[in-house]
Amino acid sequence: LAGAGLAVAGCREVAGQLLSSRLPLPRLFTVPLPIPEVARPVRPGRYEVTQRVAKAEIVPGTRTEVWGYGGTFPGPTFELRRGSAATIAVRNELPVPTSTHLHGGVNPPDSDGYPTDLVVPPGHHAHHGGHPGEVLHQGVKDYHYPVDQRAATLWYHDHRMDFTAPQVWRGLAGFALVRDAEEDALPLPGGERELPLLICDRAFEEDGSFRYPAAHDGAYMEGVEGDVILVNGAPWPVAEVSATRHRLRLLNASNARRYRLRLAPGGRFTQIGSDSGLLAAPVAHEEIPISPGERYDVVVDFSAYPVGSAVTLVDALSEGPVMRFVVARRAADDSAVPARLSRPPDRPPAVATRRFDFRRTEDVWTINGHPYRPGVPLARPRLGTAEVWRLTSDFHHPVHVHLAHFQVLARNGKPPAATDAGWKDTVDVRPYEVVDVLARFDGHRGRYMLHCHNLEHEDMAMMADFEVI
Ligand code: C2O
Ligand code: CU
């Protein structure tokens, strides 16, 4: 089975269908790397953000209509602190309904961004053909986040039923960083030496607007990939760095594209954290495979390169660049990556084993043979317990579980890769692979989802409810 999986993986490395841009591609490494603004609370613990249509200059010399939180793409970064609950009021001034999910958050079900729990723009009325159980909030919804979880790189994005892929493609995504005392006590690089990097791909029309296929175009059932790589919304950007350690919070926010990140002309990423927080100890990698939804928190030591040199973040899968760092100057560096980073929660024993098959069934993507049925849970784990979930697949499916964090136990019965370390919420299940994860159900009872984070697969029904009881 392992051999078959690898053979198939070898010829199916690209998960989606490539859409080409109809304008001249921007020049590499000319646009400076933007850093998303940090959201300011309107009062302690309360934020307000408006989803709106705006114009952005993404490809130099052109204007792109974006749908952004705060009118920007990416949206503002929310800085959250463990132990300080936050409310984010999301106001919708877009022409479409939305639902906001804080990916990786341990949040109550009514603030989790359920696909039919929608914020509708003012004046928008319930239309017929709505989904059973649909809840419509007029204009604005308060999302309540207890922030009772470890420091981690989270992100937020739209989660509207059947329309997540096109709405995220237009820009509805951003970072939310959780910090805590355990992390504060570490001498990790911070301030300007901590860079959140939201990586995604897009295609553009001649006039600079985003190019995306017509809704549910069967030709794009495998997923949509663009030919321009954006980091924080800028095409193949460049960032000047000092010859010191930098912390890079890598997020793959692409709809369908996977990457294998490397440094050219060579070098190492020291991984300090996974999707759900710091690792117990750092792990060095030459290559980081990152599928849609996943995060890798890494430190790169630019003192390993001569001042004046260029260090390019490249994708070994497409053999193309992602962005460039220019090592501009020497500087003092009192940061370090300690050998002991944190005390992540232990693995509890599993009380049950369940199996979820991610497959194509006729013309939809299914889990255990079912296209998504909102309100029909496929599993009822008990609060405070852990279960082994066996994930199998016929294609590349980055599987994301809401609420629960998990550890990868095995791939095809063999020990997981070094890059699978730590507590996670998203794992790439490769073609014909069997991935066992140990998932903990903590924090809240109620209705959540698991789904493929290839957003076209998700919209084409590869999602299921589970209910924590
Ligand atoms: Cu990032 Cu349910 O998704
Ligand atoms: Cu999938």
From TrEMBL:
Sequence ranges assigned to domain Plastocyanin-like in this UniProt record: 56-182, 355-468
Origin organism lineage: Bacteria, Bacillati, Actinomycetota, Actinomycetes, Streptosporangiales
Signal peptide coordinates: none
UniProt similarity note: Belongs to the multicopper oxidase family.
GO biological process, one term: cell division
Name recorded for this polypeptide: Multicopper oxidase with three cupredoxin domains (Includes cell division protein FtsP and spore coat protein CotA)
UniProt KW Metal-binding keyword: yes
Keyword presence, Metal-binding: yes
A GO MF term: oxidoreductase activity
Alphabetical keyword list: Capsid protein, Cell cycle, Cell division, Metal-binding, Oxidoreductase, Virion
Species for this entry: Nonomuraea solani
InterPro entries: Cu-oxidase-like_N, Cu-oxidase_C, Cu-oxidase_fam, Cu_oxidase_Cu_BS, Cupredoxin
Pfam family, one: Cu-oxidase_3
